[in-house]
UniProtKB/TrEMBL annotation:
Catalyzes the attachment of glycine to tRNA(Gly). InterPro entries: aa-tRNA-synt_IIb (IPR002314), aa-tRNA-synth_II (IPR006195), aa-tRNA-synth_II/BPL/LPL (IPR045864), Anticodon-bd (IPR004154), Anticodon-bd_dom_sf (IPR036621), Gly-tRNA_synthase/POLG2 (IPR027031), Gly_tRNA_ligase_bac (IPR022961), GlyRS-like_core (IPR033731). SUPFAM superfamilies: Class II aaRS ABD-related, Class II aaRS and biotin synthetases. The keyword Phosphoprotein does not apply. PANTHER family: DNA POLYMERASE SUBUNIT GAMMA-2, MITOCHONDRIAL, GLYCYL-TRNA SYNTHETASE/DNA POLYMERASE SUBUNIT GAMMA-2. PROSITE patterns: AA_TRNA_LIGASE_II. The gene is glyQS. This is Glycine--tRNA ligase. Pfam families: HGTP_anticodon (PF03129), tRNA-synt_2b (PF00587).
Length: 482
């Protein structure tokens, strides 16, 4: 079991899954780049989600909205006013913390020191802190009264707690005065609004009736206060969202349905069931737009954390946008002859958090012949490389056949030809990359009577089969599914 993210971070870097952004300049806080293996893994997960959420349903269609949106969108959505986190600064080290997370950290510390009563008491205080009004004062009081110190410096010299808006702001064009609120343009902090503002366009053009859904995958940006958890919390990240428009009154049932369908998706992705759970939000902690909300949580090495949110957003967004834009955003139900503003059930999953979940869940260290083998037991469907192909040694006869097989498989799969190092080293490299199959061309296979054969080695149990060359594709496609 992983007890921190450290091993995942180093494997991700060493194998080319994920790098720090601008690495050669020392990196940029909470911004990451995907390397050759990472980009494939991420794309496979994205494609899997897209297929599961659009192709599978007659009544869900996609959009790809721009990152920039009209500034009024964020007034209507409530983000300008309310998309804040409470922050506090350690005056000595000038380090900034999220006040609520500082308290959570203290609770975790108390628990690990087996001071359970004190931990529960502190948790109770945090749970009953004001949700919006008075939150800053409450959090400040908790920090002061419990003498919570800065984790790194140990100092106890705090500023007030202030609300900090998470949206990145910029301006358009050369005419901008540079500082005016009026002409501020934001990088979207969520993809959802691009769907709401296109609700009418999509309904008018795609001939959908309620209920129907709109799906989107795209970048979102949040100026996170605390950003020290690898790709779990980034300032630039990718969301995969689906907003499902339903008739009011059917929303509770649709909310339950989507929560169930989304959990099923995570399991189909190969995530262990014991590591997944749902966490309903208590009513007094709901976001301003929501009538019900639940997280789908995964047990990361940093604890149980949200990977996806399911929300009943009611008619909040469409009503707000109708009011601010002056456009009618309603549905006319011909059969029932009534007009209404649909409710929205939202499923919102972070792509990067899913990548991290997948890596953590697949990571294993196993003892093999007195050695430790590190292996990523990824679902073959999302593995970056599907097949590694190796000539046992650098001899023409073996290399030629290996090249031929590589060229042939390349048509269908992402494959990798590798002839450098011992065969054992090559297997280990592919184990760490999560490659489910390795094909080795050896002398036994090319020098015996009849058709040439190769060995196929399976990542998870390291067993091998000898297979005639003409049957390779058949065997792979069979094993890919199982
Ligand atoms: P958290 O409470 O962890 O900050 P959130 O409740 O603000 O998350 P939502 O606004 O519901 O998150 O966003 C939906 C999904 O987007 C989350 O479940 C998560 O997977 C992803 N997400 C949100 N913020 C980030 C981030 N900073 N980095 C990576 N993924 C994120």
């Amino acid at each position: 079991e992983l007890d921190s993210l450290d091993k995942i971070v180093s494997l991700a870097k060493a194998r080319g899954f994920i790098f720090q952004s601008s690495d050669i300049y020392g990196g940029l806080g909470a911004v990451y780049d995907y390397g050759p293996l990472g980009v494939e893994l991420k794309r496979n997960i994205r494609d899997n989600w897209w297929k599961a959420m659009t192709q599978k349903y007659e009544n869900i269609v996609g959009v790809d909205a721009a990152i920039f949106m009209h500034p009024d969108v964020w007034k209507a959505s409530g983000h300008v006013e309310g998309f804040n986190d409470p922050m506090i600064d350690d005056k000595q080290s000038k380090k900034r913390y999220r006040a609520d997370m500082l308290i959570e950290g203290e609770i975790a510390k108390l628990r690990s020191n087996e001071k359970f009563e004190e931990a529960d008491e502190l948790q109770q205080m945090l749970d009953t802190a004001g949700s919006r009004e008075g939150l800053c004062e409450d959090l400040h009081k908790i920090i002061m009264e419990n003498e919570i110190r800065a984790p790194e410096s140990g100092a106890f010299d705090w500023t007030e707690v202030r609300q900090f808006n998470l949206m990145f702001k910029t301006q358009f064009g050369a005419t901008s005065s540079g500082s005016g609120e009026e002409d501020a343009v934001y990088l979207r902090p969520e993809t959802a609004q691009g769907i709401f503002v296109n609700f009418k366009n999509v309904m008018d053009t795609s001939r959908q009736q309620i209920p129907f859904g709109i799906a989107q995958v795209g970048k979102a940006f949040r100026n996170e206060v605390v950003a020290r958890q690898f790709v779990f919390r980034m300032r630039e990240f990718e969301q995969m969202e689906m907003q499902y428009f339903v008739e009011p009154g059917t929303d509770a049932e649709q909310y339950d349905r989507w929560l169930e369908e989304r959990i099923a998706w995570h399991k189909e992705l190969g995530i262990r069931e014991s590591k997944l759970r749902t966490h309903p939000h208590p009513e007094d902690k709901l976001a301003h737009y929501a009538a019900a909300a639940a997280d789908i949580q995964y047990e990361y090495p940093i604890g149980w954390q949200e990977v996806e949110g399911i929300h009943n957003r009611t008619d909040f967004d469409l009503t707000q946008h109708a009011e601010h834009s002056g456009k009618k955003l309603e549905f006319y139900d011909q059969q029932q002859q009534k007009r209404y503003t649909p409710y929205v059930i939202e499923t919102s999953v972070g792509l990067d958090r899913t990548v991290l979940m997948v890596l953590c869940d697949a990571y294993r260290e196993e003892e093999v012949d007195g050695d430790t083998r590190t292996v990523l037991k990824l679902n073959p469907e999302i593995a970056p490389t599907k097949v590694g192909i190796f000539p046992l040694i650098k001899k023409d006869k073996l290399q030629d056949l290996a090249h031929k097989i590589t060229a042939d498989l390349r048509e269908d799969y992402n494959v990798l030809y590798d002839e450098s190092g011992s065969i054992g080293k090559r297997y280990r490299r592919q184990d760490e990359a999560g490659t489910p199959f390795c094909i080795t061309v050896d002398f036994d296979g090319v020098e015996s009577e009849g058709e040439d054969t190769v060995t196929i080695r399976y990542r998870d149990d390291m067993t091998q089969d000898r297979v005639p060359v003409s049957r390779i594709k058949e065997v792979l496609s069979e094993k890919m599914k199982s």
